[in-house]
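Dear colleagues,

As part of the handover before I leave the project, I'm documenting each prediction I ran so the next person doesn't have to rerun anything. This entry is a single chain, and its sequence is reproduced below.
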Amino acid sequence: MSTTITVSKTIPFILHATSHAAPRGKPHTLRRRTPHAILAYHFRTLYLFMASDLKTLLLPNLVFGVLGSISPAIVPSTGTFSSTSIPLRAIRVALWITINLLPFTIANQRLPHAIREDAINKPWRPLPARRLSPAQARELMLTGYVVAGAVSSVLGGMRSCLAVAALAYCYNSLGGSDASGAVRNLMNVSFYVCAMIGTIEVAAGGQNIAFSSTAWAWFAIIGGVVLTTVHVQDIPDQEGDAARGRRTIPLEVGDRMARWSVAVLDLVWSIAAPMFWHKGAAGFILPVGLAGVVAVRLFRSKSVQEDKVTLMVWSLWMLSLYLLPL
């Protein structure tokens, strides 16, 4: 006889949705009962927590960490390296970023106001989709932090791991993400810089690196880039942010001014960053070209879905800056 397994009795982290996640009703069930289906369900839940950040955070920071670790301008002791080591460096960095990103994203999504926002902006995320409850998300988050610390003790990047955990607490539990657009951007800067330092240390083999003065200046420039343009990620989320009472740059200064600021400052940084590395004309082509695409899209493609595509182009633009130290 065919039966349906109730998830709350079968899978530890999938319980009945609470009133924060969705209206009361029938418990969430998993109709496929094979071990493979259950495991796939869990992995998809983890993926959905991070899905919005994988392309905008994992890939750019993966590239930054691997390339930074082989750049003598960033790590003076780099010396010669074998190209065959790049895949191993990339695997180490990808694992470290993913393990540290997961609890951070859960912390960002598990509170009631975040669930209300996601119900509007990203209803497919695990909590508004009732894949698990906020209480279960908290348990998963805490487990994730323990795992992240253990992995960082092996791969390196422990200082950045602890800093990211502290930032997550300030950003979410203390309301740093909602205080003001400027505070939100400053906290994003802190996260980006911590991630950059951690990925380079992990890619370089796990040791604490004595970065060059040029490296610290470069980190400051990237921090400036993030501080002045990262609110491009808030442009498509304005409806949900307004519903939860979050203060972001687009909501504080207006949609049009926010778009102008990103468009202009992307172009400014596209000139300043190659100049910092004393690049020739060829070094300006990719950053300036992608900045131009971002600028055009900001004013010609203004739907929510198009703004999400523009965010992806902005991430590629950031990636073009990360290539400059080579």
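The chain has 14 helices and two strands. The two ends are 63 Å apart (CA to CA).

All the best with the project,
I.
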